[in-house]
Task: inverse folding
């Protein structure tokens, strides 16, 4: 792994090299588990039918690139919104939308997937803020993914 | 080994009596169980033992069934240990565990409340009456009905561990019925007998649920089911609205008895 060190952990250059557990090429094609469009949090509408009573996955942008089985293990059966807590503007709008998703769309659960870099925890903080403003409460699960695509933690908060 | 894992524990113990000794050694008391229809694999999974104990237990069981076989004990990894380090519950199950905490706080007061009959009989009987009301409307109507009408419907209710929970609830109800009678007749002996039996029963029952049943159920619930359970519990809480009233009751008795001691 190449790691020159220094600077923001979220922006620090790193090279992981090639990884393959079995040493063999994977066979076959996977089916996408995405069941909606759009997905970017500024673009999605809390009134969309696929959010009503849904299990919502709020994922940091980078997660789907790091986690090989993102579709199969986490996206399947869930509504999706993606955001970057480090770079996106107007994040207050995200809080408002989340409140609407909890109170009006009556989502069933909220799963927040973030990368291990410190700035990514802002997305979980944003979700907690929205829950504190919402009239309803829903179970919230936080999943932290390592830069090399391992699940570091998965727990209800 | 697979075929034995899918067999009921009682006939297995009959076939291999040494299994009963092995399970007893690990505090899994299947030999005293009146039913014994749990599958061997469920017995191991439900009891939520540490990864090391599970590896030791499975090794001993397999060795007892196949004494001639060269059984290899499963190596416990660092990851296994991390995963089992502490009990963490999903939000709806945590809600039940929190309700257990309030019930345990009342049970901790029972002996002092009974002794208080000698100090201020009227006050003590009021507390015993209020405690019976707490047991009936909080511990049973709110809490046990969340378990019986909602949580247990997410698993096979014919499972022995669920049947045992139902039996415990029934025994608790009959004790509380007797406590009401004791209050009516100011019968100290009857109150003492059934309150102490209720305390012993519920302490053991809560330990089984917190440490064995709930972690096992949580491991088997999907995220969607966790959300559904949470919403169903919220509806019950909103309908009954008793949580605050009974929290205040326990707090008040704790406070008064503490002052009495100091």
Result:
């Amino acid at each position: 792994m190449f790691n020159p060190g220094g600077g923001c952990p979220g922006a620090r250059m790193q090279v992981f090299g090639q990884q393959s557990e079995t040493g063999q090429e994977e066979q076959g094609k996977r089916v996408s588990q995405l069941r909606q469009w759009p997905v970017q949090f500024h673009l999605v509408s809390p009134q969309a039918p696929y959010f009503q009573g849904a299990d919502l996955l709020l994922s940091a942008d980078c997660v789907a690139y790091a986690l090989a089985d993102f579709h199969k293990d986490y996206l399947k059966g869930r509504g999706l919104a993606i955001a970057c807590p480090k770079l996106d503007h107007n994040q207050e709008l995200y809080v408002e939308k989340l409140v609407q998703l909890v109170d009006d769309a009556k989502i069933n659960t909220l799963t927040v997937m973030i990368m291990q870099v410190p700035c990514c925890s802002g997305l979980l903080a944003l979700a907690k803020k929205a829950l504190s403003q919402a009239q309803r409460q829903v179970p919230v699960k936080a999943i932290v993914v390592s830069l090399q695509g391992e699940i570091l933690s998965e727990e209800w908060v | 080994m697979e075929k034995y894992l899918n067999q009921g524990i009682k006939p297995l113990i009959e076939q291999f009596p040494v299994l009963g000794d092995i399970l007893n050694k690990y505090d899994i008391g299947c030999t005293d169980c009146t039913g014994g229809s749990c599958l061997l694999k469920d017995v191991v999974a439900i009891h939520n033992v540490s990864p090391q104990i599970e590896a030791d237990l499975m090794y001993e069981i397999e060795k007892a069934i196949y004494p001639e076989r060269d059984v290899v004990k499963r190596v416990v990894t660092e990851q296994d240990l991390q995963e089992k380090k502490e009990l963490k519950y999903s939000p709806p199950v945590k809600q039940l565990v929190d309700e257990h905490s309030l019930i345990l706080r009342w049970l901790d007061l029972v002996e002092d409340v009974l002794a208080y009959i000698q100090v201020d009989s009227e006050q003590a009987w009021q507390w015993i009456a209020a405690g019976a009301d707490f047991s009936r409307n909080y511990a049973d109507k709110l809490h046990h009905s969340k378990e019986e009408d909602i949580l247990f419907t997410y698993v096979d209710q014919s499972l022995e561990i669920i049947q045992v929970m139902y039996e415990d609830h029934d025994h608790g109800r009959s004790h509380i019925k007797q406590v009401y009678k004791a209050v009516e007749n100011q019968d100290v002996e009857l109150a003492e007998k059934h309150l102490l039996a209720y305390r012993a029963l519920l302490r053991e029952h809560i330990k089984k649920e917190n440490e064995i049943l709930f972690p096992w159920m949580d491991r088997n619930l999907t995220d969607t089911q966790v959300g559904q359970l949470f919403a169903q519990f919220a509806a019950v809480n909103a309908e009954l609205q008793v949580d605050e009233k009974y929290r205040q009751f326990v707090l008040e008795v704790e406070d008064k008895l503490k002052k009495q001691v100091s």
